[in-house]
Design goal:
It comes from Myotis davidii (David's myotis). Keywords: Glycoprotein, Membrane, Receptor, Signal, Transmembrane, Transmembrane helix. It is found in: Membrane. It is a single-pass type I membrane protein. The protein has about 270 residues and is an all-beta fold. The protein has 3 domains: about 110 residues, Immunoglobulin-like (Sandwich); about 90 residues, Immunoglobulin-like (Sandwich); about 35 residues, no CATH class. Helices cover about 0% and strands about 45% of the residues. It is built from 1 helix and 18 strands. The strands form 6 sheets. Strands 6-5-8-9 form a 4-stranded antiparallel beta sheet, with no helix packed on it. Strands 10-11-14-13 form a 4-stranded antiparallel beta sheet. A 3-stranded antiparallel beta sheet has the order 3-4-7, with no helix packed on it. The chain is flat.
């Protein structure tokens, strides 16, 4: 017998100009029982009669959040998700340098109006497509063993049976589980030579003949995800001197603090 699942309905605010909202009691009717009143509340969203900015949009090519300016404003700031405010350039656009490909993100524009009330509006970008539950889950990447970069993910809980996932760089060394790609590994040297302090986007796309599969993404600095290993130590000893040497074990980190601990061990236990 097939088990049925009931999905909860969600209320998503409309995209576009979103000024203040008001709740109005529009209809108050008596029922047959005089002591009971039926109160119908309507949540009304109204737009400002003359908004200082309109046609808010994201331009993926230039990575600019832009709009049409109409009013006399003293300043405009943009906010990407929970990030801090970014000052608009010439009050015409906000310049971003990295845009999400997979994660729907809220972009809020706050406008300071000359001799007027502050104004705020927002949009969401990018447009969400496909079944979110079919996307690769738990995407995580790790630099390890000095030279290797491995990214792993799990099959989406609501993914169709024919789903297949692909890392953003085609790589032949996929790890398979029940016929699905769940891991990709390659040499980190392909990355660390490009920039001194690299910051990258990792993302996994999906394909299926049944439905569209959303992508999953991860933004990270390679240094942040590196799992450091202990250096190789060599020792040269004589009756009066011991010389210990070790090699740095990272392509990404340049400054290390080492703690050297010397313990006296009973030779009989060796």
């Amino acid at each position: 017998m097939r088990e049925k699942h009931r999905s909860a309905a969600s209320c998503t605010p409309p995209t576009g100009d979103v000024p203040a909202t008001q709740v109005h009691a529009l209809d108050r009717n008596r029922t047959q029982d005089p002591s009971v009143r039926r109160l119908t509340l309507y949540l009304l969203s109204h737009t400002a009669p003359n908004p200082p900015i309109t046609n808010v949009r994201m331009e993926p090519g230039t990575k600019r959040l832009t709009w049409d300016l109409h009013g006399n404003v003293s300043g405009i700031k943009c906010t990407e998700g929970p990030s801090s405010d970014l000052k608009a350039k010439h009050n015409l656009f906000c310049q971003f340098y990295v845009l999400p490909k997979c994660t729907r993100t809220n972009y809020t524009i706050k406008v300071a109006v000359v001799d007027g009330e502050p104004y705020s509006t927002w949009i969401e970008y990018p447009k969400q497509e496909g079944n979110p539950g079919a996307a690769a889950e738990g995407l995580a990447c790790e630099v390890h063993d000095k030279d290797a970069l491995t990214c792993r993910w799990a099959v989406g809980r609501a993914a169709p049976s024919d789903v297949q996932y692909y890392f953003y760089l085609e790589d032949t060394r996929y790890t398979m589980k029940e016929g699905k790609h769940i891991e990709c590994r390659f040499d980190v040297s392909a990355f660390y030579n490009r920039r001194q302090d690299p910051f990258y986007r990792f993302w996994v796309t999906g394909t299926s003949h049944r439905e569209a599969i959303p992508c999953s993404e991860l933004f990270s600095n390679l240094r942040k995800i590196e799992k450091l290993i202990a250096p190789n130590i060599s020792a040269t000893c004589n009756t009066s001197l011991a010389l210990l040497q070790w090699d740095m074990s990272s392509h990404l980190h340049r400054l290390f603090d080492y703690d050297l601990e010397i313990q006296q061990v009973n030779p009989s236990v060796l």
